[in-house]
């Protein structure tokens, strides 16, 4: 080997080594830069739209909160609860969604349930922000239909200063529900942990009562063209579902028929300690599940994982929840 070719080879190989080192170094630097990116830990704004016939329905997230399944679910064994959660890849406490549903009929804007407002703390109270993110304003809401008067459904109708959150809306719920929760005397016969629920219900609807815009209804009546009340008592005395119908399409907004889908669709007998009448709640759950499954209704569920929109499929004695298929531009 002559000295020249040796030196040429040496310089070529040293250039190769240098290139390798630079490549490695830049790889390390790139990895270091990726690792330093802060984790964001938030979701997209919580609104999701579907069309129900000619009606536009927007599911609004109020947030999620840790649901203490071990202490709250009743009527089934701990073993059954553990088995059902494991089947759905869940562990207690499960994050429970709170969902509300905004229906734009084309002539009216109707909000079904309003979330917890400030009553559940920082986890929740996001309905208003998500309603705005969805392109609406609270003053556009014509009616608020409440499935019942528990904190996580009625709390969002007032602002932090106690004024109306929806200044042009009529607020409606069943007369039986209003008579129960708006009468503080009923605290005496209710479990102690529900005592503050009476106070919250009274305070939440107070500005609407004062303005003559709290209008309870009686029976399974049509409240607006295409929106009908269906009594499903048990969770609370006047617990009500709303059937939204447009064209050949139907949406059953069923409130608190199901709190933990993983358990209660396997065991419709499973109740929660918040049920005023567990037996009646169980009957209403079986009724609503059968109704939704047999008519293939789209269901809007207050506490099934957001957006809480899906269908119920019957499997003998048990049921499956089939979430809606994602659509980027519904109705277009
Ligand atoms: Zn609820």
Task: Give your account of this protein's structure.
This protein is α+β, with helices and mostly antiparallel strands. 31% of the residues lie in helices and 24% in strands. The longest helix is centred in the first third of the chain and has 34 residues, at 3-36. The chain is globular, with a radius of gyration of 26 Å. Residues 150, 152-153, 256, 302-303 line the site of zinc ion.
Provide a count of the helices: 9
Assembly type of the chains comes to: single chain
Helix and strand pattern: HEEHEHEEHEHEHHEEEEHEHEEE
Bound molecules: zinc ion
CATH-defined topology of the largest domain: Metallo-beta-lactamase, Chain A
Termini separation: 76 Å
Explain briefly what this protein structure is.
The protein contains 9 helices and 15 strands. It is of the alpha+beta class and 332 residues long. The strands form 3 sheets. It has a 7-stranded mixed β-sheet. The chain has a 6-stranded mixed β-sheet with strand order 1-2-4-5-6-7, with helices on one face.
């Amino acid at each position: 080997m002559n000295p020249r070719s040796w030196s040429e080879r040496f310089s070529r190989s040293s250039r190769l080594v240098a290139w390798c080192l630079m490549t490695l170094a830049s790889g390390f630097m790139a990895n270091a830069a990726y690792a330093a990116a802060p984790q964001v830990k938030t979701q997209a704004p919580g609104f999701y739209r579907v069309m129900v016939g000619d009606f536009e329905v927007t599911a609004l997230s109020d947030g999620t909160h840790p649901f203490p399944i071990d202490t709250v679910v009743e009527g089934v064994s701990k073993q059954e609860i553990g088995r059902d959660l494991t089947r759905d890849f869940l562990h207690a406490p499960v994050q429970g969604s709170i969902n509300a549903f905004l229906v734009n009929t084309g002539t009216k804007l109707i909000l079904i349930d309003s979330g917890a407002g400030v009553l559940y703390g920082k986890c929740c109270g996001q309905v208003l922000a998500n309603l705005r993110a969805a392109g609406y304003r609270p003053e556009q809401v014509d009616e608020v239909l409440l499935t019942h008067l528990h904190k996580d459904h009625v709390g969002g109708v007032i602002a932090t200063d106690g004024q109306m959150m929806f200044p042009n809306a009529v607020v409606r719920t069943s007369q039986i529900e209003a008579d129960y929760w708006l009468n503080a005397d009923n605290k005496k016969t209710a479990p102690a942990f529900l005592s503050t629920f009476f106070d919250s219900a009274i305070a939440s609807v107070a500005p609407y009562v004062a303005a003559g815009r709290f209008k309870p209804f009686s029976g399974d009546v049509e409240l607006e063209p295409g929106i009908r009340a269906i009594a499903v008592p048990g969770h609370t005395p006047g617990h009500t579902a709303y059937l939204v119908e447009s064209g050949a399409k139907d949406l059953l907004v069923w409130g608190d028929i199901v709190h933990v889908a993983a358990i209660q669709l396997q065991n419709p007998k499973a109740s929660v300690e918040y049920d005023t009448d567990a037996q009646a709640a169980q009957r209403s759950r079986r009724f609503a599940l059968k109704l939704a499954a047999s008519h293939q209704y789209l269901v809007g569920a207050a506490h099934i994982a957001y957006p809480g929109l899906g269908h119920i499929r019957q499997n003998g004695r048990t049921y499956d929840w089939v979430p809606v298929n994602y659509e980027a531009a519904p109705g277009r």
